[in-house]
């Protein structure tokens, strides 16, 4: 999978080429995704996206849906490409995970607004709260969604600090889900690669 910094129809593989590539490279893509996954508390998982994860997602959608026409390919790019970090931010898919359906229903009602209370805190800098669900509203008066898309905008000084090895805390200060943790060094090293 060639990283170009810009996902275009021309930069994607044909279905045939991707099927061959996938057989050889799926384990390394899964390892990359796992490296960029951070579990906060017991029930929130943030999958920090990258060009690699989003290219993989687009290629998978094209493969599963057997999309090979230009219009369909462009629609998939438009749906997923905004999730690629642009050098001054981190973007993540946030999943609220409860295995028991009744517990999930109850907790999603208690966690309304949780996506807006997610933050990153670069050592020596103020907290940066998530900008959530820019594509569409994912909650109502009764419950929040189990999946949100969040973006953390970092200042140039924060980016420089992360690239220089500064620690970063990931947290949530929602009343019903107070949690925070240091992002593990190996994950942070991968995330630092997203920053200019």
In short:
This protein is an alpha+beta fold. It has six helices and nine strands; from the N terminus they run H-E-E-H-H-E-H-E-E-E-E-H-E-E-H.
Describe the structure.
With 196 residues, the protein is α+β, with helices and mostly antiparallel strands. Helix content is 37%, strand content 24%. Strands 1-2-3-7-6 form a five-stranded antiparallel sheet. A four-stranded antiparallel sheet has the order 5-4-8-9. The longest helix has 21 residues, at 15-35. The protein is globular.
Can you lay out the helices and strands and say which pair or pack?
Layout lengths: L14 H21 L1 E4 L3 E5 L2 H15 L4 H11 L8 E8 L4 H10 L7 E5 L4 E3 L1 E2 L14 E7 L2 H8 L4 E7 L2 E6 L2 H8 L4
Antiparallel strand pairs: 1-2, 2-3, 3-7, 4-5, 4-8, 6-7, 8-9
